[in-house]
Design brief:
The chain is an alpha/beta fold and 660 residues long. The protein folds into three domains: 285 residues, ANL, N-terminal domain (Rossmann fold, 3-Layer(aba) Sandwich); 139 residues, Rossmann fold (3-Layer(aba) Sandwich), CATH 3.40.50.980; 130 residues, ANL, C-terminal domain (GMP Synthetase, Chain A, domain 3, 2-Layer Sandwich). The protein contains 20 helices and 30 strands. The protein is globular. The N terminus is likely disordered. It is found in: Cell membrane. It is an enzyme of class 6 (ligase). InterPro entries: AMP-bd_C (IPR025110), AMP-bd_C_sf (IPR045851), AMP-binding_CS (IPR020845), AMP-dep_synth/lig_dom (IPR000873), ANL_N_sf (IPR042099). It is a multi-pass membrane protein. Keywords: Cell membrane, Fatty acid metabolism, Ligase, Lipid metabolism, Lipid transport, Membrane, Nucleotide-binding, Transmembrane, Transmembrane helix, Transport.
Length: 660
């Protein structure tokens, strides 16, 4: 028993050592990788890294804009879903509601910087309440009434519009440069019975006051007093009005398709037309800033007139949508521009037409790149000016746009590719279907096939841009002008019964999906069986040292088909027309048919308020030296220069003695 007991104890005492050896045997042991396995893993890692490098190289080489495309499409989709939400919201959520929310959340944030003064969101909100109450009392305004705003760029423009929006009223934004017949025309288009103006424009209103009185139209002046009978001063009544919020019931019937504004076309080819801007279109236009990458931390610079869609919709309304501050200028000033940008820490600037060229023509300064501007939004900049602007003023992302106030299709060059006005992608085309179609310049109509349908232009070919009219991309038309509205509608484009908006613009899509503006229909003319783009000819003329600006157009010559090229030009200060240099430029860079045969020297070119050149009068006046007081020149191919256009030369042209 003892021996057995003793043996058992020995076994128990030995048990822990045995168990420990088992535990150690269960521990993971270092794996001894052979040379082949290590080499295999290194090869796989190197191959994966190489594939990533090749993929990156492929994307960089063949898809250099992939990231920009994806980023832009993502922003566009988000904005599209937002707009869809506003369409369905009950009650309707408007830009005004967005402003009111910003005023509640950040009442002390500056909305407007103007000539050394700051106006916060809360202050603008209160002032707009006072304007609404004063107009409600004096003009007896009610929902859906229209008020014509004939005002310069000043802060009162902003809160006056907001006050009208609080009453559910529409605003007609009148160009403050128009007078007499044009002013009455614009006023009558919108069906307004009230016009609101300022002291500096009083003389223009007085000129048409008898007609306004005859039509029963009330005229209000933003001043404390007025000595002109029939004009009611309003400022004193505004200052005495309550600034308490107004009931949303005053605008209860406003919805996504309600008319918000009337914005007038520039009138380059006749009297301006009143484009109808709905609440939906106002929202869509306000998204341009967001689509271009503007954030809630930016400060926007508005130096364009608020009566224009760029200044009002993209600038002012876009800033309200972003909830940011903006600097408002009475008018564009190249000499003050960069000083303002530095003073107000501007990060986003706006341009249109020739404004960027004016900046490039300003005297050079040492601190030209000393600013915080990172984005420029606008349209109409020439390629050479674009390049010079970047060289002089730094790495600014230029977001060149293509759009029309009344249109249903537009593009944004979100890649900053110099010269392009936009870029095509499948998301954009899905939401805004469009086509480039072949266009007959001479007949000024689309080319159709045997079935009566339009023919799509090939990639790289210039064509007429048309946008399909759908519930998502509508075309409302022009107020009080059914004839012009119908002219903009194009039927049977891709299939029988479809309906498209005719932009009237000739564009080109290249093989990389970039969009290039070529010319406007009517500006482009046909000579010697070839199409001549006026913008291209103007660009070449301005490369001559003496030429400051050029307005190119085609004029009729009796006995000849088509129209021959002519240019009205202005000269740089202290310069005479360097006929040899101008001849050298047009011969070196333009084909024979595109060279302007006539040049007219003018002290200044007639332009619209948004720097678009007027051509109608010039075309009508032609090139007869007996009727034109300005110096005229004729391209003499034999003498290889431009010579003064005399009565003898004119008669030789008309009698066909001199061949063109």
């Amino acid at each position: 028993m003892r021996e057995g007991s003793a043996g058992s104890g020995a076994q128990l005492s030995a048990a822990p050592n045995f168990s420990h050896s088992l535990f150690r045997a269960a521990e993971p042991r270092p794996v001894d990788h052979g040379p082949c396995e290590i080499q295999t893993k290194m090869f796989l890692f190197s191959a994966a890294a190489g594939l990533l490098v090749l993929l990156g190289f492929y994307i960089w080489t063949f898809c250099p804009h992939l990231w920009a495309d994806c980023s832009y499409m993502w922003r566009s989709l988000r904005l599209g879903f937002r707009l869809k939400g506003y369409k369905k919201s009950k009650p309707f959520y408007s830009i005004l509601d967005q402003f009111l929310d910003s005023a509640r959340r950040r009442p002390d944030k500056v909305l407007i910087h103007f000539e050394g003064r700051e106006y916060s969101y809360a202050e603008v909100d209160r002032r707009s309440n006072q304007v609404a109450r004063a107009l409600q009392a004096e003009a007896r305004l009610k929902e859906s009434d229209t008020v014509a705003l004939f005002l310069p760029n000043e802060p009162s423009y902003v809160w006056t519009w907001l006050g009208l929006a609080k009453l559910g009223c529409r605003a007609a934004l009148l160009n403050f440069n128009i007078r007499s017949k044009s002013l009455l025309h614009c006023f009558s288009c919108c069906g307004s019975k009230v016009i609101l103006t300022s002291p500096e424009l009083l003389a223009a209103v007085e000129e048409v006051l008898p007609t306004l009185r005859d039509q029963g139209i009330s005229v209000f002046l933003l001043s404390d007093s007025c000595s002109v009978p029939g004009i009611t001063p309003l400022s004193d009544k505004i200052s005495k009005a309550s600034d308490e919020p107004l009931s949303p019931e005053l605008r209860a019937n406003v919805h996504i398709r309600s008319i918000a504004l009337y914005i007038y076309t520039s009138g380059t080819t006749g009297l301006p037309k009143a484009a109808v801007i709905t609440q939906e279109k106002m929202w869509a236009a306000s998204f341009v800033q967001a689509a271009c990458g503007v954030t809630t931390k930016d400060t926007f610079y508005i130096n364009l007139p608020l009566y224009h869609s760029a200044g009002f919709l993209i600038g002012m309304i876009g800033s309200i949508e972003r909830g940011i501050s903006f600097v408002l200028k009475r008018k564009f000033s190249a000499s003050q521009f960069w000083d303002d940008c530095r003073k107000y820490d501007v990060t986003v600037m706006q341009y249109i037409g020739e404004t960027m060229r004016y900046l490039c023509n300003s005297p050079r300064k040492i601190n030209e790149k000393n600013h915080k501007v990172r984005i420029a939004i606008g349209n109409g900049v020439r390629t050479d000016v674009w390049t010079e602007f970047l060289n002089r003023f730094g790495d600014i992302k230029v977001r060149e746009l293509y759009a029309a106030t009344e249109g249903n299709i537009g593009f944004i060059n979100y890649t900053s590719k110099i010269g392009a006005v936009g870029r095509v992608n499948f998301v954009h085309k899905f939401f805004f279907p469009h086509m480039l179609i072949k266009f007959d310049i001479e007949k000024e109509e689309p080319v159709r096939n045997s079935e009566g349908l339009c023919i799509e232009a090939a990639t790289g070919e210039t064509g007429l841009l048309v946008g399909k009219i759908t519930w998502r991309s509508p075309f409302v038309g022009y107020a009080g002008n059914t004839v012009q509205t119908e002219k903009k509608r194009l039927r049977d484009v891709a299939e029988k019964g479809d309906l498209y908006f005719n932009t009237g613009d000739l564009l080109r899509f290249d093989h990389d999906n970039f969009v290039y503006f070529q010319d406007r229909v009517g500006d482009t003319f046909r000579w010697k069986g070839e199409n001549v783009a006026t913008s291209e000819v103007a660009d070449v003329l301005t490369t001559a040292r003496c030429v400051l600006e050029a307005n190119v157009y085609g004029v009729k010559v009796e006995g000849h088909e088509g129209r021959i090229g002519m240019a009205a030009v202005t000269l740089r200060d202290g310069e005479d027309l360097d006929r040899a240099d101008v001849y050298k430029q047009v011969v070196n860079y333009l084909p024979t048919y595109a060279r302007p045969r006539f040049i007219r020297i003018q002290p200044c070119l007639e332009m619209t308020g948004t720097f678009k050149m007027k051509k109608v009068k010039l075309v009508e006046e032609g090139f007869n030296p007996a009727l034109i007081q300005d110096p005229l020149y004729f391209l003499d191919s034999e003498k290889k220069t431009y010579v003064p256009l005399t009565d003898e030369i004119y008669r030789a042209i008309i009698s066909k003695e001199l061949k063109l």
